[in-house]
Design a protein that fits this description.
about 220 residues, alpha/beta, Nucleotidyltransferase, domain 5, 5-stranded mixed β-sheet, 10 helices
Length: about 220
């Protein structure tokens, strides 16, 4: 049986402890990675990679307020996104489209979107800090952290960039598909979103494999 994670290990705010441990070993390019949109019924899966500088003694102070993006308000994410981009020595945002998710499945899509985020960095990182996942296909040293977006500042920053980019896209596409209210539900399965699917069916932005499975389950409830 896997050892249960001790939630007492979660600090009030993400820290640079994991990054510093790598910096002290000579790994200067430490990339934090996180994703956004895994559980949505519509829209792409996004991920971001963020490399923070090892030479700024006030970095944690400058990034105060950054945490797991789901724990931040939309205003806080919007305010901190340019701060993260300015302070980071490198960052990348990537996505996997709904059609790709339907073709390869979410497990492969989740690994693919992280690989694309890593490939988008100017230089290959020397170590990866990843929220929960492991990337066996990527030949870079990596640390998988349970609740990583609440413990590692790099992962928290990646969480914010990924969610901010995805939310912005869903706001934009809501103009083309106003009936689905993507500007409000961001593609997730809210009761209102499910009702619209029942009434209008699926649009091209929906992950058909997800929605078909969900609708079949509801048929037999």
């Amino acid at each position: 049986m896997a050892k249960r994670f001790d939630h007492n290990l979660i600090p009030p705010y993400p820290t640079l402890d994991f990054e510093k441990a790598q910096w002290q070993q000579g790994c200067q390019l430490v990339a934090g990675l996180d994703e956004a949109g895994r559980g949505a019924l519509a829209g792409p899966l996004y991920a971001a990679a963020v490399v923070l500088p090892s030479v700024d003694p006030k970095l944690e102070e400058k990034l105060l307020g950054v945490r797991d993006s789901k724990q931040m308000t939309a205003f806080e994410r919007e305010r901190m996104t340019p701060v993260i981009k300015t302070l980071a020595i490198d960052f990348s945002v990537a996505w996997v489209n709904p059609e790709e998710i339907d073709q390869i499945g979410m497990a492969k899509a989740g690994r693919l979107v992280f690989q694309r985020a890593i490939s988008g960095l100017k230089q290959p990182p020397t170590h990866l800090l990843i929220d929960y996942f492991k990337l066996p296909e990527v030949k870079i040293l990596q640390t998988s952290l349970v609740k990583g977006d609440q413990r590692s500042m790099s992962i928290a920053c990646a969480s914010v960039l990924a969610k901010q980019a995805r939310d912005q896209l869903m706001l934009e596409v809501s103009i083309d598909y106003p009936s689905y209210h993507f500007d409000q539900n961001k593609g997730y399965g809210s009761p209102e979103h499910l009702q619209v699917i029942d009434e209008l069916g699926l649009c091209p932005l929906h992950r058909h494999s997800f929605c078909d499975h969900l609708l079949q389950g509801r048929l037999f409830d």
